[in-house]
Amino acid sequence: MSKMFSRNVLLKASILFVLCFLLTGMLTAQQRSPGKSHGEESFYVNWKHYHNFDEMTTILQGLAEKFPRLAKLTSSGKSRQGRDLWIMEISNFESGKSLDKPGFYIDGDIHGNEVNGMMVPLYTCWYLLTRYGNDKFVTGLLDRIVFYVRPSVNPDAGNSFISEPNTMHHPRWNYRPIDNDGDGLFDEDPEEDLNGDGEISSMRKRDPHGRYKPDPEDPRLMVRVKDNDPPGGWTLLGTEGIDNDNDGRLNEDIPGGLDMARNFPYDYSIRNGWPYPLSEPETRGCIEFFRDHPNINGVFHYHNTGSLIMMALGKDAKMGGQEQQSGRRRYRRGPQLPEMSKEEQELMKNFLNVTVERDRMRDAYMYQILAVRGVHILKYRPTLNGGVGQFPPWTYSMYGAPSFLIELWGIPADYDGDGRVSQKEGLRWVDEELDGEGWVNWQPYKHPQFGDIEIGGSYTKFMRRTPPGRYLEEHCLKNTRFHLYVASELPKLEITKAEFKPLYGFSASGSGKKKVVKNSADLSANKMGSGKGVIGWLDIEVRNFGVIPTATAQAVKVNVVRPDKLKIEGGKNFKILGRSDPENRLGKVADFEDEKSNEIEIGYIGGRSGKNYRLLVKLNSSKKNYLTLTVDSQRGGKIKKKIPVKFL
Ligand SMILES: [Ca+2]
Ligand SMILES: [Ca+2]
Ligand SMILES: [Ca+2]
Ligand SMILES: [Ca+2]
Ligand SMILES: [Zn+2]
User: Fold this and answer.
1) CATH number of the structural domain spanning residue 520
2) DSSP line for 620-643
3) What ipTM describes this predicted complex?
4) Which tens digit of pLDDT belongs to each residue from 127-159?
5) Which residues lie at CB < 5 A from ion ligand 4?
């Protein structure tokens, strides 16, 4: 009777399996030819253009409307000037609840002038959404994990930078009014685009006693004459503008003045992060978002400039140098890394000598593995991201997530290879790559306060700190490729083994005492309970195929991630009678105290590793001859597996 029954179930199960297989086949993206469309035309965006706040909003709203099963746009509050602090949640909403998936957070543009830091996350939203179903990699990511993308942390300054005349350095702060010069007036003397060319440049004036002259090698640049040489004939007046308040100082109190990138609570200093931690709606909104999303297990935070991959590993982390190298021998050998070119090895060199307290070396090794891909794609230099109130040091040290700060871009114009880009090299790049477009030439101007002057002599604002439009799409793509790689290394949990080995059956009449295995106590009859059923071993292996663990060493240290849980369902009278000891050695059952529930804590699962568990379980015969196993990890996601059970 029961044999017939289980055969029937098996048949049903195999039909279901075939159905599932067909269904999955339909939903999973087909492998495309690299030369063919991947859905780009479904939502056109010009990625060679910097989008201001309204344009960014239109793109985000358009994407959310076009892809309602994959994207949800919410505003996490308002900036000082009342702009929405957009955050886009992206995942396949039909493959599980977002909070049950590992979360990956991306933001940028906390320094308003660093608008490529906004374009990269915005591009990522578009890339993920248009490619879902057209790209196996992207489809797999959105089925498994959830992205939280906040393209602009500082939309007021970011919008001003793009829409209004500015230097490449401003506006950087948010718009909390500050009296920079202590005259009782706030923001009273900004920079001005006097000649209306859309750029804020420099001003110079002919002056018989002036100490500057045009550079003989390139008259677009000004050089200071030597102290004993005759005057150069020019005085530099400063940044383009007027002395609005007639105090004799030029542009001394520009709007805003708070560095939000120093406003976070980890290693906070009032000197840099004035007036107090999380004083701004923009920064407070970031932390509140993390409070509400305990599943986040990876953070990218975009700045410019300098071509750096910075990783937060705590204030005690050190890098490079002989001293550290010898210190490093105290630790076990580092991780297995992919092959690297000579250039890549040089870039990685110092970061491979990172040292940190022993307990957290595994976090350093995780970063090393992840950084290699970034170095390969971007040719940026990996380094540490220290403290002083920055965001990734908070998301690592106090929230426990692997956290990256990317310093985007740097003109690729180091022609002589000395490691820096001089003004002359920059100008050569402007001439050769941009046909002269990236530089403002000197033009005469009649200044209301200085009389006949000239304005110019500077890079245009979209140049040194941000790629010119024609390079923007490539820039966004490469950076997206790197952080999506890191996202793909979020915990990828799988129950790789689940075997039930029946020891003996029991029935209501009772089968008396029996030895189960060596080292184990006798099972008394009352352990078996009533009815008809089976007692046996359940051997389980859970593996994490991602590089990122379900909890970093830092997360464990600051106790912000609950241990992963294993839940077993096997009918009404299912019971876990005992489990292998926490040392994870197979076979030895720690005790036979009944577990209070069928959900047990199983610790954390490291990157690219697995854990084995042996449980002694009891279940009654029922119509459902299988066990359902659920691994539920706060930052590693939730997975299920069903296994059949044989009754004796
Ligand atoms: Ca003032
Ligand atoms: Ca101008
Ligand atoms: Ca002034
Ligand atoms: Ca001014
Ligand atoms: Zn910055």
Assistant:
1) 2.60.40.1510
2) E--S--EEEEEEEETTTEEEEEEE
3) 0.91
4) 999 999 999 999 999 999 999 999 999 999 999
5) 189, 241, 244, 251
